[in-house]
């Protein structure tokens, strides 16, 4: 059985600046590969090798946001362009130590109850859509408004890189005084 190498640290390093970002990860509480495989089997999905490499290592269960000093958080009732609500990215964690909204189990159950055989694994904060793995280990983006799935052409690390780079572009736009209200 081949095992992919974790690229999470290299992807973080593409944008990392401690003055601009805040990050938390599973660290030593990351699940084992065996626990992840058992979880995937319970939900009838396949976790690809690259995701297993990420989720079972130090940076699994990753939470990355732009610091509040740079990107103040919106309050209920605030309006603005869609991008201005997307200040972070996280991967769901198979850990009781993670906040419930970030835990893999509850979100997998929610999707099962909706009749979907997928497991959500990556979310952009502020976006109701979520990336999921299906039975074949393919990435599907769940489109909440249509309750439909759109395939993503690439692997887990491709997606993580893409979403981190897009977050960094939004951060730069925010710092440059990008429009935050209509």
Automatic annotation (TrEMBL):
<dbReference type="InterPro" id="IPR037883">
    <property type="entry name" value="Knr4/Smi1-like_sf"/>
</dbReference>
<protein>
    <submittedName>
        <fullName>SMI1/KNR4 family protein</fullName>
    </submittedName>
</protein>
<dbReference type="Pfam" id="PF09346">
    <property type="entry name" value="SMI1_KNR4"/>
</dbReference>
<dbReference type="InterPro" id="IPR018958">
    <property type="entry name" value="Knr4/Smi1-like_dom"/>
</dbReference>
<feature type="domain" description="Knr4/Smi1-like">
    <location>
        <begin position="30"/>
        <end position="162"/>
    </location>
</feature>
